[in-house]
Structure formats: C-alpha cells, structure tokens
Amino acid sequence: MVHSPVPTPGHPTERPSRQIPPDGGVPAVRGNHPGELPPVHDALLCVALPAFTLSPEHGQLTGRGPEGVYASGRRLLSRSVLRVAGREPIPLQGRLAAADRAVFAGALRAPGDTGPDPGVTVERSRSADGTERITLRSAFPRPLRLPVEVALGTDLAELGAVASGRPRPELRASVHGTGLRWTAPDGRSVAVTADPAPTDALAAAGVLRWETDLAPGAATTLHLRVHADRSPGATPPGGTGRPGGHLLSDAQAEGDDRRPGVLLRTSVEDLRALLQRDPAHPADVHLAAGVPWRCGPVTAEALWAARMALPLGTRLAATTLRCLGRTQVAGGTESGRLPGPLRDAGPHLPPRCTGVEATLAFPVVLAEARRWGLPQADLDELLPVAERCLAWLRRGLDADGLLPDPAPGGPWRAETQAHAHRAALLGADLLDACGRPGAADLRAAARTLRERFRSEFWLDDPSGGRPAAARAPEGHSWAQLGGWAAHLLDTGLLDSGRYARGLLDQAETEQLARLLGTPALDSGWGLRSLGAKEPGHNPFGHRAGAVRVHETAVAVAGLAAAGYEKEATALLRGLLDAAELFGHRLPEMYAGEQRAAGARPVPHPAACRPAAVAAAGAVHALTALAGIRPDTPGRSVAVQPMASAPLGAVRFSGLVVAGEPFAVRVSRLGLGMVEEAAEGLQLGV
Fold first, then answer.
1. Closest CA to 215 of 291, 129, 315, 140
2. Which of 13, 156, 521, 647 has the highest Cβ tally under 10 A?
3. Residue 5 gets which letter from DSSP?
4. Which CATH entry fits the domain spanning 245-624: 3.90.1150.10, 3.40.1010.10, 1.50.10.10, 3.20.20.70?
5. What separation, in Å, do the N-terminal and C-terminal C-alpha atoms of the chain show?
C-alpha cells in the first residue's frame, strides 16, 4: 500500500518533517518528484479489496508502469500477454462490466484469411483478484488448430515501490502443477494455475502454451487463476473473505432522467468494492479512501463516506465508528481526540489536522445514524466514545469560544468551526436523548461559537460580504472563498425534526448561496475548492481550484435543505454531467476548469477512482432530491423534496430507514410520496 510518509501525530501540534500530502492522499515517494504518481486514469480498475487489478484498455499486462494484479498492497502479477497463432489480438474494446470485473474484446485473422474480416474473436474477462477467462470464437468456415500462449511475469513488488518507479526486477518462474510459480527473496510467492492444463510450460520464459481446436462457429475457454501463497497458519490481511454486500442496500433510482439510476447503481457497487476489514477485528468493516493509492487504515474520509451513505443502511456507519473508536486517545490533555495526520490545506493556509476533523465528525455520524435506525446495542457501545469526543471539543475551545486547528496555535478555520458547531448541537441532542449529562454546556458552547463566528469571520464588502476561510489569533484573516464554504450550510437534523441552526443568519446564508452559484465557484462540473478569481487559483489544486466531489455533494444537499434550489440544481446537474463522462465512476477530484461546449472534465493526476467520498457523495447528492428526514426513535419519517423537481419525476427504492426497505417517489410537480416504509412509522411531508 502507498501510505503517507507523515506519521500519525500523537498531538495535533506536531509537524511532520517531510512534505505533507494533500487531501487527495498524494504521498511523497522516493524516486519520483514529491507527490508525483504514475498516471492511471486511462486504465480500467477492477476493485474488490484487498485485491484490485489495473489494466490498460487493450487488456494486455505488459509489465510496464503500474499495471498488474494487486492484493494487500503487493503486485502479484505484472505481465500477462496473450498471443494466438503468434500474434497479439487486435484490441477492439475494453470496459468495466462491474466494479470488480473488466472485459476486453479483440479479434484476429485466422491463417488463410484472404479478406479484411477477422475470423476469430477473443474475449478476456479479468476480475479484481486476477482470475481471468479467455474465450476464443471462430467464424471461419473450416476447423482451425490455433496455438495459444500467455506470457506471464511478476516482480512481487510493493505498491509503494511501483508508485515511486522502483519495482524489483522480474522474478524467474518455476513450473508448478498446471501453471507457474514465482518466489521472492523474502520467501513470498505467487502461482498462476490454468484450466485446462497447458500442453507446454516454459519456466525460463514464463510462458504457458495450448494447442486449441476450433470447429466452425465453436468457442473454447481457458481459465487462469492467481494464488498468493502464505505461510502455514497465516491469516489473510483484513480477515477471511470479502465483506458482505448486506452492509449496503441495493438502492435504485428510476425516472425521467436515466442518469441518477446509473450513477446510484455504480456508486453502490464501488462502495462495496472499497469495503475492507479491520485487520485486528475482522468483523468490523470500513471503506478504503480510494484505489489505487489510498487503501490504508480507516480515515476521516471513511467516516464522512459512511455518513453520506446512511440512506443505504446504518451497519457501515456502526462498523466504521467502531474501527475509529478503538484509536481514540486515552488519558492526558488530548484524551478523547481521534488521531490523524496533518494534511496540506492549499496555497494559503498551514496544514490542518485530520484527527480534529474525525473527532468532530464522530458524534455527528452517531447522532444521524441513530435517526436513520441504528440498533440500540450499537448506540450503547459507541456512545461513550462520542461523549469523550465531545468532552475533548469542550476542552479544545479557546477563550474566545473558537476551536483552533491544529491546537493550540491555530489558525481558526471556518470549516473547523462549522464541524465543531454541528458536533456540539447534534451531540447535545444525542446526550439528551440518551439521558446523559453535558447537553446544556454543549448548546452554550455552540451559541458562543456562533456569535464569535459571525463577528470574527464575516467580512463585509459592497457586494454583500463573504465568510473568511480562516483567522489567525493575532487577527489576520484569510479571505479566499472556495468549496470549503459548503460546510457552513451542512447542519444536520435535530430530534425536533428541524435542521440545526447554522453559523450564519438568513441574510448571510442567502449571500453565501448566491456566491456558491456564481461562475467563480461553480465550474459547470461542480464546486471549485478555490474560486477562479482568488489569488493562487489552480484548476488542478486539490485545495486551490479542483472540483472535490465531497464538497459539491455537501453543497447540493445544504443548498436544497436551505431552500436555494436554483444553485443546488446547477451543481447537481454539473455533477451528473461529469459523472456521465467519467463512465459514472467519479474520481475524488477533477480539474476545476470552466465548462465549455464540447469539453470534458479532466481528472486530477493523483486522484483515486473509485473513491469512497466520491461514491458516497453521489448517493448524498441524489437523495437530496427527495429530502428524506428520518426520525426512527420518534417512529416517523418525512420527505421534503426539491419543489422544482429539477430532474423530473424520480423514484428511489431499496433505501433503508429503521432497518427496513424504504421507497419514495417525487412527481414532476415536486410532490413527494412514501411508497414503502417500516411498519409503524408515521409518514409526513
């Protein structure tokens, strides 16, 4: 796996000694320029963690670049070149058939062909674990005998070495059963077996050969399987087997616009493909941040993704919270904080602490999961962790009622204040509902934070003003406006069925909504992380102008909930258009270049695809069309759809509220109707 070279700090004020990776997870790896990774966006990525396969569109694994079959952060196969009758098939098409499987079509002229039409077609189906099915079909008028060979090879290199351009030399193979085997100097080995057995195996060249007879109109299939050998008694990393799909429901969308249905289905498939087990507790599952570069331990992004995926069920949120809760700092001045590395925050601000972000998100996700139907046993287990997070929040607020990030020197970030305010309000609601003390102190802290934010962060100007991105303790402000401002609109539901009051008043909220809808921030493909007119804008800057799907989804949902449907609709349509051009598998970020006629969105060179926050963000943005407001403890659920029905009629089914299937329809007039819900839930609009 590629991990950040920055160690997880034991204290949020610790500074790393090497280059800080950006939010996209770009590691500083030796052998390349810092943060530079080999391009993979033209490749087809099949994912079923801990395994994934990275294939070029033509399907041949040539051993060049990062292509290959990987499992648990190690490349198991780097070369798999098919030749039929001494020639490579002409590549015709490569596509993803599912999140974990790619299909490649090719053709070749049979010996004796005199015309331009190929007489033999070749289909290769390759799965994330490296299993491959090769099918040859003949349209030749007479029987054919075709020699088929597959040249295989591997270096058994770690993904980090591959990413930095320092793979090992290819290993020498030995004949093993019905295939070949390679063993590295450290004792690790991998084998490829074939069915049917090859007629010949050349270990020195790494080649398996068959003599294949094809009758007119007939087909024959070869199967290749990759086996990573482990020492006797060793436990597979992350536990045995793939996490079950039952963690996420089979949600579907249908309606006047077909794109939401395709995007929702693809996003659910990608989320399932990104599930991985906690190595020490295999029963608990969380989302990897993204493939191929961010398959490491559970992160703040996994928590945000679990929150946005709550319409698909609460089980993923529960297991993710358990995984993170086990890392909580115990004792000392930082008791209750969740650890996390520092991350680059763009050209204007110093690094931020992802541990602070995760600590503030924990009680929010728990409170919202409870509303969606989290079982009482999970709530009882996780509530003490949330209480410690909230206690850390109360201690972390400075004399002015603001939360520095990182502490204690700051700066005060607007985004962090929004997270802290939301955590205080939803945390207070959670404590009250569970009969726990401390809610009054949290609400008082939220009031103080809101008052200080409006006096310290709102910058007046002739155009109506704007929120500052951050303030320094000595009074200096960072005025640059970007996608981070969407978090000021993200409040969450209270037990009263109302949205929590935000940091801004109505006039300021209206002004922010207007700003988010301007071309300076809305690129036409989504929300820029830094406005196009701001100093230091870079369309590819992960915090300096690139479109980050998470922020765009948060903006869509927040704007829709606040009643600013025009701006929400523009961002949602831009996201849908981008998703369609990305094959409905959104990268975590892409260039924030202004949309033009005939143009396509350009992926960030270091972005993961699939990525957890992108796939879950699509779920979050799409379900905002229905405005589902669950209150499982209160035995009710309401819908407040977007009145403008921007995509026409739409129906969502297979969602989960109170542990049971939930379906809702929104008409072309923007009227919502619940069609399926758990028995005993009171329905409302």
1. 140
2. 521
3. S
4. 1.50.10.10
5. 47
What's the gap between Cα 181 and its chain centre? Answer: 34
Residue 245 has pLDDT above 70, yes or no: no
Kind and range of the H or E run holding 421: helix 414-433
Burial (CB < 10 A; 0-12, 13-18, 19+), residue 234, is exposed
| CB count in 10 Å sphere of residue 444 | 14
Least reliable range by pLDDT among 15-19, 267-271, 625-629, 644-648: 15-19
Distance CA 37, CA 105 (A): 29
What is the torsion angle, in degrees rounded to the nearest 10, for the CA atoms of residue 69, residue 73, residue 74 and residue 78?
30
Q: Measure the CA–CA gap between 394 and 388, rounded to whole angstroms.
A: 10
Side chain identity, residue 137: R
378-391 tens-digit pLDDT:
999 999 999 999 99
How many Cα atoms are found within 13 Å in the side-chain-facing hemisphere of 585?
A: 26
Cβ count within 10 A of residue 507: 10
How long a stretch of residues is the chain? 685
Q: Which pLDDT belongs to residue 241? A: 58
* 3-state SS class at 588: coil
The CATH architecture to which 51-229 belongs is Distorted Sandwich (2.70)
Higher pLDDT, 333 or 197: 197
User: How high is the pLDDT of residue 9?
Assistant: 31
**Residue limits of CATH 1.50.10.10 in the chain:** 245-624
pLDDT at 317 over 90: yes
Q: What is the distance of C-alpha 47 from the center of its chain?
A: 12
DSSP 284-351: EEEE-SBTTTB-SS--HHHHHHHHHTGGG-SHHHHHHHHHHHTT---SSTTTTPPP--EE---SSS--
Work out the percent of the chain whose per-residue pLDDT is above 90: 79
**Paired strand residues for 171:** none
CB contact at 8 A, 521 and 513: no
Burial class (CB in 10 A: 0-12, 13-18, 19+), 596: exposed
Confidence of residue 427 (pLDDT cuts 50, 70, 90): very high
Average pLDDT over residues 31-45: 73
Helices (H) and strands (E) in the chain, counts: 12, 35
Q: What is the CA radius of gyration of the chain?
A: 27
Residues 350, 316 contacting (CB under 8 angstroms)? no
Q: How far apart are CA 646 and CA 562, in angstroms?
A: 16
Query: Which pLDDT value is given to residue 685?
Result: 63
Of these ranges, 281-285, 524-528, 599-603, the one predicted with the greatest mean pLDDT is 524-528
Q: Three-state DSSP class for 427? A: helix
pLDDT tens digit sequence for 572-599: 999 999 999 999 999 999 999 999 999 9
287 bridge partner residues: 275
Pick from 404, 641, 478: which is nearest to 652 by CA? 641
Q: Residue 393 in contact with residue 403, Cβ under 8 Å?
A: yes
Comma-separated ranges of CATH 2.70.98.40 domains in the chain: 51-229
pLDDT digits (tens, 9 = 90+) for 184-235: 998 999 999 999 999 999 999 999 999 999 999 999 999 999 998 754 333 4
3-state secondary structure 517-559: CCCCCECCCCEECCCCCCCCCCCCCCCCCCEEHHHHHHHHHHH
Token code pair at residue 558: 């927040």
